[in-house]
Each structure stands twice: as structure tokens, then as C-alpha cells.
Amino acid sequence: MDFPPITRVVTGHDADGRAVLAEVGPLPHVTRIDAIPGTVFHEIWATEGAPAPVGNTADPTLGPLMLPPPRHGTRIRIVDIPPDTEDFLRQGASRMQDAFTQIGDAAASTVAEDSPHPLMHRTESVDYGVVLAGECTLVLDRGEVLLKPGHVVVQRGTNHAWANRSGAMCRMLFVLVDGAYLPGIGPGA
């Protein structure tokens, strides 16, 4: 399944403070993940700080790809997730360092010999994941759930992976919110 390209509409303010269309067009930052063929990150926007600065700020997606949100900020992206293949499941763990390095957070990968999936990872954030098309399985250390269009995941800094066992592409929308682990929850706790 080929997904349609994403059109981003960004609003702004003119010199008189009136609402204007600052941009309407394709996303300027779309990245194919080399170590996981078929995986595509579509970067939509990010904010830094809380409260988020409201105004005519520069496009925050033009820098390097980063998995986590900015400190005290947010990130919104769409990810196209290809079906898992036997080759990927067999050799995926050896390629994960390259994959997570390309997406800007090598330390996020938690894959180990006994991991339930080669894409196991963890970030110090609260993430909202919405299945837009296709199917995907949320894999945790203990347990998993099949996700279909309209399902929403509230992912609270847990070790997890997105496994596509459907044989067709899956497209998910993610909103990531910077977080801080409570005592006893973070890595090594």
C-alpha cells in the first residue's frame, strides 16, 4: 500500500498581527531509515519549552532527525512502518544501533538477546500513537496488543516496539511530549 504524500499547513501572523497562511505544501523533512527498509519518518513540527512559544518561529523540522522531543517540548510526526520480514527479525538486532543513530537517539535502543522484538526501545516521554492506516502490534516486555485504524496508544516511557505482522504497510501518527521518569520507573530502577 502506497500512502499519499503529506501536506503541511502552517499558520502565522502578518505585520498587523492577523492570521495568515505561512506555508502550504509538502513536508520539508522526510527521512527513509536505511537500516529498516520501508520505514519513513515524516517530520511535521516540534516545540521547545513550556509554554510553547507562539509566533512566527523558524521551521523546527529542518535540523537533524531526532527521535525524542526537545527538552520541555513536543514533536509530531507520521511514521510509515513496513511489515516485519524473516530477515529483519533474524538480523534486526544487529542493525538497530545504526537505525537509532540515524533517528537521532542511539541510546534509545534497548534490544538484547532475549528481547521480544529487535526494535525494542525506550524514551523519557509520553507518546500518543494513532493508527491511521494498516495494522501494527504494540510489543511490551510483558504483553502485546494488535492495533487497527482508530486505535490510540498512550505510551508512558515504557520499553516497547512497533511490530508490523500484517503483511501490509502501517501508517501511524505520533505526538511525543518530553517527560521525566518518576522514582523507581526509569532505566536501572
Automatic annotation (TrEMBL):
Domain Cupin type-2: 118-175
Pfam families registered for this protein in UniProt: Cupin_2 (PF07883)
Residues making up the signal peptide according to the UniProt record: none
Protein name according to UniProt: Cupin domain-containing protein
